[in-house]
Automatic annotation (TrEMBL), chain A:
Protein name: Aspartate carbamoyltransferase
TM helices/strands, residue ranges: none
Biological source species: Streptomonospora mangrovi
Domain Aspartate/ornithine carbamoyltransferase Asp/Orn-binding: 151-298
Domain Aspartate/ornithine carbamoyltransferase carbamoyl-P binding: 2-144
Encoding gene (name): pyrB
TrEMBL record, chain B:
Region entry Disordered, spans: 1-26
GO molecular function terms listed in the Swiss-Prot or TrEMBL record: uracil phosphoribosyltransferase activity
Keyword Ribonucleoprotein listed: no
Residue ranges of the motif PRPP-binding: 122-134
Keywords assigned by UniProt, alphabetized: Glycosyltransferase, Transcription, Transcription regulation, Transferase
Membership in a protein family: Belongs to the purine/pyrimidine phosphoribosyltransferase family. PyrR subfamily.
InterPro entries registered for this protein in UniProt: PRTase-like (IPR029057), PRTase_dom (IPR000836), PyrR (IPR023050), PyrR_bifunctional (IPR050137)
Protein name: Bifunctional protein PyrR
């Protein structure tokens, strides 16, 4: 494993290694000295062409807990606003000796292109509507931590699948790990090629919920929508939002996940988001451990 | 004193468990199961003696083979004194000085007993003492977890060739070796039988397990 670009590149053993490593590294967060010397002297660049709070701070914290030097680079206030291309920016970072590049970009495939230009490891922190592998890994980690397993879990991914990089990464990873994924969305928000994905598809949330161990809700990404995909937000929320009544249809052991940022009242009601079955803040905490594991496995060895 | 390996050609291990390891036919048994048990029993008594009853002792094994050894020592101390001694494991992978010589390694488990390590006498337990680099890493790892009153080192086999100023407080067996030899410790918990084997050196690509 040289880069982390897609969860589809991970074998079952590799994915399990990341999760096991994260489980060990999670202990560091509970100690008084929250630091390991492992990546001392290595430089990690956070290259963010899109807004992000969770992912960028999570990667930054993870790299710092491993003693790496972190450079934060966001497109706003950099030479990108003067017209510099991704390739030239990458070559600049290369010349400065970056050992790892964490990249988020609005264009699908940007991380893959970048991997061909720089010597260091590239970690995809979200490329357009394509993939977000560390999010899928932390979701799988959270499922394993809460339910004790991933294999055989019935996972429903509900919402704006069309624009979601989280959905694709999760489908590929959860399939590799042996879970059964069902995508639930209005037909207009389902990708055209979804029949080639290793998962089931449904348009009826109420029918899926009773046969589900994990519900993962996705935000409707209005910023990526040029067309009207559903009549009104209220209608979307009525049919695909998770509220108290729908929560009651779930089996008692089922958990509710959301990759964030969430829009309360739209895909998830405030009551559900704050309930004991919601893992939303756990996901954020687990994100640091999983990203530490990914950074260690990509940058820690020879 | 002069800890020569005894010419025990008859002690060719217990015939029950098959080694199944590469080069097993050329490896020679230098400690068999009962000898390992006796060495551990002696070390347990030495720990009790040196620490005056092991009142605030915590045993921490270094994965992988130090952990079952720490557990066995804890059992023996409890048998003798009738009081439980906290034991756990301390993984040192993230503190190794040779991480960049090999692909990233899988981590072992770290389990610190609930008493913690602050103010306690921590006895680190490992199977083989070689270069001393593992123990150096363990001291660094321990430093990030807390501040023990004292740290001691218990080792099943000391094979010499130290590269750092480190020595063991409790030694199961001193085993003078050549750098062209390898020492393999087998433990029933992990390998199905107890034995210490001396064989020809494995190739050391990035020193797969230098102790």
């Amino acid at each position: 494993m040289r880069h982390l670009l897609s969860t589809g590149d991970l074998s079952r053993d590799e994915a399990t290694l990341v999760l096991d490593t994260a489980a060990e590294l999670a202990q560091v967060s509970g100690r008084s000295v929250k630091k390991l010397p492992t990546l001392r002297g290595r430089t990690v660049v956070n290259l963010f062409y899109e807004d992000s709070t969770r992912t960028r701070t999570s990667f930054e914290l993870a790299a710092k807990r491993l003693s790496a030097d972190v450079i934060n680079f966001s497109a706003k206030g950099s030479s990108v606003s003067k017209g510099e291309s991704l390739k030239d920016t990458a070559l600049t970072l290369q010349a400065m000796g970056a050992d790892g590049v964490v990249v988020r970009h609005p264009a699908s495939g940007a991380a893959h292109r970048l991997a061909g230009w720089v010597d260091g490891a590239v970690l995809n922190a979200g490329d357009g509507t394509h993939e977000h592998p560390t999010q899928a890994l932390l979701d799988a980690y959270t499922m394993r931590a809460r339910t004790g397993r991933v294999e055989g879990l019935r996972v429903a991914v509900v919402g704006d699948v069309l624009h979601s990089r989280v959905a694709r990464s999760n489908v590929l990873l959860l399939h590799t790990l042996g879970a059964e994924v069902t995508l639930v969305a209005p037909p207009t928000l389902m990708p055209v090629s979804v029949h080639t994905w290793p998962c089931a598809v449904s348009y009826d949330l109420d029918a899926v919920l009773p046969k589900t161990d994990v519900v993962m809700l996705l935000r409707v990404q209005a910023e990526r929508m040029q067309n009207a995909f559903f009549p009104t937000a209220r209608e979307y929320s009525r049919r695909y939002g998770l509220d108290r009544d729908r929560l009651a249809r779930l089996p008692d052991h089922a958990i509710v996940m959301h990759p964030g940022p969430m829009v309360r009242g739209m895909e998830i009601s405030a009551e559900v988001a704050d309930s004991a079955r919601s893992t939303i803040s756990e996901q954020v905490a687990n994100g640091v451990s999983v990203r530490m594991a990914a950074l260690y496995l990509l940058l820690g060895g020879s | 004193m002069c800890a020569r390996k005894r010419a025990e050609s008859d002690a060719e291990a217990s015939p029950a468990a098959d080694p199944t390891a590469p080069g097993a036919q050329t490896a020679r048994t230098v400690l068999d199961g009962p000898e390992i048990q006796r060495a551990l029993t002696r070390i347990a008594h030495e720990v009790l003696e040196r620490t005056k009853g092991a009142h605030d002792v915590t045993l921490l094994g270094i994965p992988s083979r130090g952990v079952p050894l720490a557990r066995r020592l804890a059992e023996r101390v409890e048998q003798v004194e009738g009081r439980a001694v906290p034991w756990g494991s301390l993984d040192i992978t993230m503190y190794r000085d040779d991480l960049r010589l090999a692909p990233a390694r899988a981590l072992g488990r770290t389990e610190i007993p609930p008493q913690g390590v602050d103010g306690r006498v921590v006895v680190l337990v490992d199977d083989v003492l070689f270069s001393g680099r593992t123990v150096r890493a363990a001291l660094d790892a321990l430093n990030d977890i807390g501040r023990p009153r004292a740290v001691q080192l218990a080792i099943l086999v000391d094979r010499g060739h130290r590269e750092l100023p480190i020595r063991a407080d409790y030694v199961g067996k001193n085993l003078p070796t050549s750098l062209r030899e390898s020492v393999d410790v087998r433990l029933a918990e992990l390998d199905g039988r107890d034995a210490v084997l001396l064989g020809p050196a494995r190739p050391r690509p990035g020193e797969e397990d230098d102790r």
